[in-house]
Amino acid sequence: MGRTKQIGNLIPNSQNKGLDPVSTFEKKPFLFLDGNYKLKITNPIEGYLSIPKGDDLIPSISAASILAKTFRDEYMEKMDRKYPGYGFAKHKGYGTEEHRDALRKLGISPIHRLSFCDFLRREGSEPSLFPT
């Protein structure tokens, strides 16, 4: 059975078992994850479902994806004003060549993920580009 069919059967199957899907989800937390992930947390919640391409299949994942992108875009515009020269308002933090060029010129800002900036070390960039 395909993944889309399985997801489509979640609610009808719960109704066949005499369960109201809305009240069932209201009583216990349930988490939909976009992607193919297994949670590694200390106190796992009882229910979650990892759904590859979930933002195409589940409306709540689609909505969360839009909200997250909107929030990130606004945040990156604020960071562009705080750290001018990196072009955050334009590339929104994605690894464009313009973004990499700014890092080569300006070094790593406090908001950069060091894992993203590993390319500088691989290129043999000046140690002064890295935070101490």
Account of the protein in words:
- The protein contains seven helices and two strands; from the N terminus they run ααββααααα.
- It has about 130 residues and is mainly alpha-helical.
- The protein folds into two domains: about 5-55, no CATH class; about 75-130, no CATH class.
- A two-stranded parallel ribbon has the order 1-2.
- The longest helix has 24 residues, at about 60-80.
Tell me the layout of helices and strands.
Elements lengths: L2 H14 L4 H7 L2 E5 L12 E5 L2 H4 L1 H24 L5 H4 L5 H10 L11 H6 L9
Parallel strand pairs: 1-2
In short:
It is found in: Cytoplasm. Its EC number is 3.1.26.4. This protein folds into 2 domains: 55 residues, no CATH class; 57 residues, no CATH class.
Beta-strand level of the residues, as a percent range?
5-15%
- Number of folding domains? 2
Give the termini separation.
53 Å
Report the strand count.
Answer: 2
| Class by SSE composition | mainly alpha
Subcellular location: Cytoplasm
Protein name: Ribonuclease
Function: Endonuclease that specifically degrades the RNA of RNA-DNA hybrids.
Main location: cytoplasm
List keywords for this structure.
132 residues; mainly alpha; 2 domains; 7 helices
